[in-house]
Write a structure and sequence with these properties.
Helix 1 runs antiparallel to helix 2. This protein has 179 residues and is of the alpha+beta class. The chain has a single domain, classed as Beta-Lactamase (2-Layer Sandwich). The protein has four helices and seven strands, in the order αααβββαββββ. About 23% of the residues have low confidence. Strands 1, 2, 3, 4, 5, 6 and 7 form a seven-stranded antiparallel β-sheet that branches. The chain starts with a helix and ends with a strand.
């Protein structure tokens, strides 16, 4: 029974990944077109401004695809399963981060105490971060560009709530370099 559930979860995750890749490739073309259109419009009106990277559109199809992927990962039983070893959890999340192009995954409890889901396992507080507060309110979301509390680098964070038996158990989030 457990093997069947894991296979179903794996197949669901794989299907969502395929959908995310398709949406990402579609959004890349739209994003390039939007940038070209913006630059041409700006030049036509005598303006030579370039969009600021810190002004993100959180409803872009790329961001939507990333949130779909993150939601799929957030329902994986490995996150809250006390019977899975720390080493197995870290190996799983490090492999997922590499596949998805993230700097890494992190999990925060309801108070905002976060831990990096990698071999370093750094702990830090994200209670003051808007992406954490939004996810606690049940809203998967994308942050603006911000400075990482771990590394000091500019990052963008994707966050989603994690539920256990229909109750909020914490927040799963992943980051990408902002450049």
């Amino acid at each position: 029974m457990k093997s069947t559930n894991l296979k179903t979860t794996f197949l669901s995750t794989a299907a969502i990944l395929v959908l995310a890749v398709l949406m990402t490739s579609t959004s890349l073309g739209a994003s390039i077109g939007e940038t070209v259109n913006l630059n041409l419009t700006s030049q036509a009106h005598g303006q030579h401004t370039v969009p600021n990277e810190t002004q993100r559109n959180p409803v872009s199809s790329f961001d939507a695809a990333e949130l779909i992927y993150l939601k799929a990962v957030s329902v994986h039983p490995i996150i809250l399963d006390d019977y899975v070893t720390y080493e197995d959890k870290m190996a799983f999340f490090e492999a997922e981060a590499e596949k998805a192009g993230y700097l890494g995954f992190r999990f925060a409890d309801l108070q905002g105490n976060a831990v990096a889901l990698d071999q370093q396992g750094r702990e830090f507080d994200v209670a003051d971060r808007q992406y954490f507060q939004n996810a606690l309110a049940g809203e998967p979301n994308v942050s603006d560009v911000l400075v990482s509390k771990e590394t000091g680098e500019s990052i963008v964070v994707y966050a989603t709530p994690v539920y256990l038996n229909d109750s909020l158990a914490g927040v799963l989030f992943a980051s990408r370099a902002a450049n």
